[in-house]
Amino acid sequence: MLETSARLLKLLALLQTHRDWTGAELAERLGVTGRTVRRDVDRLRELGYPVHATRGTAGYRLGAGASLPPLLLDDEEAIAVAVGLRGASDGTVAGIEEAALRALSKLEQVLPPRLRHRVRTLRAATVRVGAPAMTVEPDTLMAVADACQRRERLRFDYRAHDGSTGPREVEPYSLVHFSRHWYLVAWDVARADWRTFRVDRLTPRTPTGPRFTPRELPEGDAAAYLSMRLSDRAWPWRATVLLHASAEDAGPRIWPGMGVVEAVDEHRCRLHVGADTPEALTWMITSVDHDFTLLDGPPELVTALRAQAARCTAALRDFPA
User: Are 61 and 76 in contact, with CB atoms under 8 Å apart?
Assistant: First the structure.
């Protein structure tokens, strides 16, 4: 009986690799006959696992069933699920925190001691920094994601930054989780232009609109476009500087939402950056820690850069060389 049970678990692990297996391949892996494989497949089906026969190859595939059967996870998969559930328990999707904690409790209860220790060590060594994120209702997130996948126009009421609310109709393209918020990148039908929307500020209307023909995404990528929108274009004070460093060297110094790097050649790149004050622009540009030349910016930024230079020079006036 123990040998049979162990073989069933090994068979289940093979089927959960999301590929089709012929009966001969499974028999070779398990060291049994094809008849034994067929009997073991029948046992899995009796336990609720939807093992489907594949056409033309006399093989098997694990499909989706009416209920969720037990899963087999290797060590790395188990740790990944535990870490993901921990993040979901205090994450940005409202209403799933309690369910995530219940699932995490069940998982940690059956983890081998070595894995439980690794998960708890990671949790103890991790510090969450930053203000709490705005949560999003799961139904809203799923409605937007479904419209993106189906390529159907989405209608919703949107609350703007100033508190005003109005109807919008868009062609939804992609959801992006960026800097503690969920954003929708979409083509605004009324404004005939690309826009980004905070998902926690929108309330979907039903039904969705007609299907649309996909357009080419700006910047070639939804995440890159959102980064651009949240950096230089969204701020009242903007500038472009030429960094005397390659885009590869400067890139790691530019955090998401700070600015966008554009390669010029192998030794130089342009940085498009935005901020809420000229002084903040000065700090952001100098924090990159590369020599630079100001290409475009307001006169107030020139004044702020000169003031910063004078301040640094004065600080070293009486300092011994």
Answer: no
CB 184 within 8 A of CB 202: yes
β-bridge mates for residue 102, sequence order: none
Residue 237: count other Cβ atoms within 10 Å of its Cβ: 19
Q: Tell me what the pLDDT averaged over the chain comes to.
A: 84
pLDDT digits (tens, 9 = 90+) for 173-210: 998 887 677 899 999 999 999 999 999 999 999 888 89
pLDDT at 93: 67
pTM of the full structure: 0.56
Q: Are 258 and 231 in contact (CB under 8 A)?
A: yes
Cα–Cα distance for residue pair 4/260, rounded to 1 Å: 59
268-275 and 193-198 strand pairing: unpaired
Q: How far is the C-alpha of 295 from the C-alpha of 271, rounded, in Å?
A: 10
- CA angle 227/147/201 to nearest 5° reads 55
